[in-house]
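Readers of this paper often ask what the protein records in our data store actually look like. An entry from our holdings is shown next, in its original layout:
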Amino acid sequence: MKALVYTAPEKVVYRDFDEPRPNEGELLVKITNVGICGSDMHAYLGHDDRRPAPLILGHEASGVIEEGDQKGERVVINPLVTCGNCHYCWDGRSNLCPDRQIISMPPRQGAFADYIAMPSTNLIPIPDDLSTTKAALAEPLATAWHAVLTANRLSYRPLAEAKAFVIGAGAVGLGSALALKAFGCKEISIAETNQLRCETAEQAGIEFVFDPTKENNLTDGSMDVIIDAVGSKESRRTAIQSAKPGSVIVHVGLLDGVDGFDARRLTLQEITFVGVYTYTMMDFQQTVTAMAEGKLGALDWFEERSLLEGPNAFSDLLQGKTSAAKIVLRPC
């Protein structure tokens, strides 16, 4: 099969690769669409020791089952493979499974390829009125959905009455803003340094979008709910400065893990700071349903390219040349 293979920092190559062989309980899926994630970019830059070259990246995928009784069924892939037997899995918190694996990280190859082998339990049918291209957005949107559910659970003020601030307008940040709207939140701001993405967020229906390097950065301590979809020292600092006493900060970005953390202010102002990771299967299923029902908007903020164009897509993302919150690749 053909695959887009990460071979060295800032280098991905479109080439032949061994076709996967499904293990017991797995099905072969022909990939129709796969998105480029921030974690793919992190690996592409050589900043992720968990993803050593050579490796097929990509975990935001949809496709068609190639075999068995379900042959021909369109599915979206939950890339998080868990044991199903630990207390986290039994408690419905499978994203915390100590034996979890995710495609695009050894020992599992990713979805920038013609085919992938996945456990049948990780395949979610795509509703008839949702395209496979839009379905590939489900993974980042499920991460956003999980973040907003966490904010909803921990916030003292109901989301419908809260002032919310999202940092970053990539797929997870924009998805978080759209999920907040779906939960009834009416005052939502997004900070984004890429002007092209600011325009995309505005077109998606977010009224207050700004570049924090040029405009008011909302660090006046007035926000009830903050979602940091970047996860850098600068975004953490901004999140904590913008939080009002008793508010909630949901930290979902994974850019780096140090600096920008003011534990003293969190303590004195009784601000809840919580990290969230991926999603549960219930989150994923709810997200796919919400997408099909139009609760997350038109979902037209992506750009589609062929997998063969993958190297240029990575380069354009690195240089901030695209207005799309997501580039979705399509195997040839």
